[in-house]
Amino acid sequence: KLTSLALQPVITPELVEGRVHLKCTFSRPPSKPLLRYVVVWSRLSTPGKKEQVQRDTTLQSFSYVEMNGVNLRLGDTVFCTVTAFMRDTPEQQSLTEESKGFYAGIKFLPESLQIAEDGKEHVLTILSTVPIACPGHDHSCKITLQLSTEDLGKNSQLLGPPNVALSACQVDLLQAPCSESSCAATALGVTAVTDFAQDGTRVSRVRAEPVGWRDLLWRAYTPKDVKVTVQDLPTGNCYSFTDPHIITFDGWRYDNYKIGTFLLCRSVSRAFEVHVRQWDCGGHRSATACNCGVAAR
């Protein structure tokens, strides 16, 4: 056998004649020019099990396979293995070397989020690891993703408002040169909805679905969901009741017998305020005001 040749195969994405291909590139040992290479392409069919999709014998230090939507689809994790052998004596083979798995499709970074009901926006990056090919649509080459959220849990439909809010309902992945495992990327803001309910830690998922003009490769593809865990934070309460007795967030108590419209509460950090309207409800004997209306933003 030939000794280990440190071929170090690496998979990179590439557009070839407007179609998405993966390229397996490996090192050619300068001390052994008379080598041929067997390159086997495979995909992860089930966890821990690979399925061969193509086999090449080549004199070159690279090999291509097309992502055609049939034997290689978006969402696949792809590997290439390379074995070298002498042209004159093919029984002299090197050790087989395998590339790292290349995930072809749309990725979310981070792959899961843990956030709290504190009003802070968290950035979710959405990227495509393969080039976006648009034959005949080069002036506006993009994939549009429709975004949605879903609460998980037994009684999700009974829990009121959604768990998370997104900064956009649709995002575009625009064609760009591939670099560092990204061929197109965009950012999305994710915020936990402050719902004033003590509903514990809840889990939602964010889904992205390609819509609009698509070729065969994108047509049947739905990227993996992102899990978002929302930690419940205790909520403050303030009150105005009967002939208005008022208890503030920090427990201070006072009365407001006046008639009119008053600012009950305003946040200094976000768009939130509550106005109360108080009318006379005491008749002729005593001047008493009662809550009769509320406006909340």
UniProtKB/TrEMBL annotation:
Cited InterPro entries: Dev_Signal_Modulators (IPR050969), Ig_VWDE (IPR057885), VWF_type-D (IPR001846)
Residue ranges of every copy of the VWFD domain listed in the record? 236-297
Q: What is this protein called?
A: VWDE protein
**Listed GO CC annotations:** cell surface; extracellular region
Question: Gene that codes for this?
Answer: Vwde_5
Q: What's in the keyword line of the UniProt record?
A: Disulfide bond, Signal
Q: Which Pfam families match?
A: Ig_VWDE
Which PROSITE patterns does the record match to this protein? VWFD
GO MF terms, alphabetically ordered: signaling receptor binding
